[in-house]
Amino acid sequence: MPKKQSTAAKKARAAAREGEKYTAALRREAESPTAPTTYSHVPVDDAGDGHVWARIVEDCPHCPCHAARVCANGLWHQASHPTHADGTSYSDPCPCEETAKVPEPRRLTITFKGAIMRTLDAEYHRHGLMRGRLRVLGYPFRGEPDDGSAPGRCGMVLTRSKVMRTARDDHGETWLVCTHASVGGRPATITGWWSDEWPGPAA
After folding, report:
1. How confident is the model at residue 197 (pLDDT cuts 50, 70, 90)?
2. Quick check: 37 and 51 in contact, CB under 8 A?
3. Exposed/middle/buried for residue 168 (C-beta within 10 Å: 0-12, 13-18, 19+)
4. Quick one: 94 exposed, middle or buried, by C-beta within 10 A (0-12, 13-18, 19+)?
């Protein structure tokens, strides 16, 4: 049997879907300091007197310094600097963040421009500027620089896509092929697979 939800909680969820600002309120009974503390979701403007605003979050089970949503979504750069219960700064690195800094190896099966299907080594990034992206290793593509200089080998960075099905990794996730690349630091366009038989046509 589903748990009965309060009217305030239902309003909070409805407002969240519409982009309105809601927060959690900590209600204390003024006449009974020993009474149990109850939590409720209420609009900011309707909090009223007798409420103490509180940030209700679930602690990450894998580290002592961040909320679960911070580590789950890789939001360490947005989180405030953690502190211990006594207010002292938490100086040790976050175990979750340190683990996320190491790219996760994956295998990517890709069909580029309807040509030969290949399986390549790739790395999935959970941290930094590349967070949420997949980088192909080994420079298997042929890139033609925009300035007209000689083509060269290049890699590819892909973003997630639920529509494009031409690239899929061994975790079952699909990726959007990107033709923008760099050859020797020069902006380039990926035109096909690299061939060691250059200057012949790319495979």
Report:
1. low
2. no
3. middle
4. buried
Phi, psi of 96 (to 5 degrees): -65, -45
Rounded to 5, what percent of the chain is helix, strand, coil? 15, 35, 55
CB 81 within 8 A of CB 66: no
Alpha-carbon span 183 to 190, nearest angstrom = 10
Residue 115's DSSP bridge partners are none
pLDDT value of residue 184: 87
Please state the rounded mean pLDDT for residues 112-122. 83
Q: Is the pLDDT of residue 201 over 80?
A: no
Residues 148-168 have pLDDT tens digits of 899 999 999 999 888 777 889
Its pTM stands at 0.60
The two structure tokens encoding residue 16 = 């969240």
158: Cβ contacts below 8 Å, ≥ 6 apart: 108, 122, 133, 134, 135, 136, 167, 175, 176, 177, 178
List, for residues 16-36, the tens digit of each pLDDT value.
555 444 444 444 444 445 544
CB 189 within 8 A of CB 180: yes
